[in-house]
Design a protein that fits this description.
homodimer, 217 residues, alpha+beta, Pnp Oxidase, Chain A
Amino acid sequence: MTFDKTDRNQVKRSPQRGHYDRETIYRVLDAGFLCHVGFVVDEQPFVIPTLYGRENDNVYLHGSTASRMVKNLVTGVPVCLTVTHVDGLVLARSAYHHSMNYRSVVLFGTAVEAMDDEKDRGLFVISEQVLKGRWDESRLPNEKELKATTVLRMTIESASAKIRTGPPNDEEEDYALPIWAGVIPLRQSYGKPEADPKLSDGIELPKSVANLSGVTE
Amino acid sequence: MTFDKTDRNQVKRSPQRGHYDRETIYRVLDAGFLCHVGFVVDEQPFVIPTLYGRENDNVYLHGSTASRMVKNLVTGVPVCLTVTHVDGLVLARSAYHHSMNYRSVVLFGTAVEAMDDEKDRGLFVISEQVLKGRWDESRLPNEKELKATTVLRMTIESASAKIRTGPPNDEEEDYALPIWAGVIPLRQSYGKPEADPKLSDGIELPKSVANLSGVTE
């Protein structure tokens, strides 16, 4: 259940922070829903933020048929897909040892267009990744909407995770300096839901939202 | 003060969300400190999360001389540098019109190594971007540390921002559906500082940390 370590996915800097097992890689992927997708057009790299959903070794993306990302990815070009969570600022005594606590994954593969049942499934998987339960509350896509949307499946060919946790590491002689050191945690949280000004009266907050940690009406 | 709109930086999908003026692009850049850097090695794109600092049209990056990113960027290959802030989940009545509120910028250019005074300046600019005032509180880099670090300057050649705000947009006939719609704000915030277990007694929380919004001891 581990991805082979090759030149492509190897964590070269701070290799002790590198992980290649699916359990760790899945855990980092499943904690987010926004990725940065890299692809190349005429030697120019593009890095585009987009939503994703993971199921097993498949990562689904979607977009308008008119988008640069979709137009290029459907042609089967090499893709790099990266997800990063920043967990804290690591303040050391020395400027040099300042760091971040973070969890990131870098995935490699190529995308193919998901068709028919897999297209529906891909949209469901992305929706569930962003907000579990929302799909079943929504008015589902009609033919026209499906036609305007391309769903892409990228099977993970190669991957690695890189994770840093814990306090700063300073040079032995710096611990005596009268400089504060430690970690400032950073977290993402949901705020109070803002109802659409056009929302009809008497419609309650849905389960999907009520289930989000920290959300109250 | 606007970047020319070319095929490279043009926002193709939802063009009404595209911005090309420096004021908007700088504002999105200045609200963050983590970017995703894209570069190509033998036709394979890589997307690597890293810290940055902006000064005028220059974006500074740094890394170990041993890192894949540094080794490739110093050779002057084309770079795409993307910064994304997710501001909220946009829940529409229809699955199709679900969206995100976000601010993102995509920058294009090539990197050069910053040397001597500019190297020091680049490190300062990155440090200030992550945590204003921290540089002056820290034990500054010595020769050996400077030697182990490469600082890169990427002058922005071309750029665009893409921004979505506000409530969902549904199809006219869907507004009558008994489905909740609105925005769930998402924000990043700092938690309670965690002192290094090795911190000497009597060292107070520094100004840089105390000045962070929401941080209390």
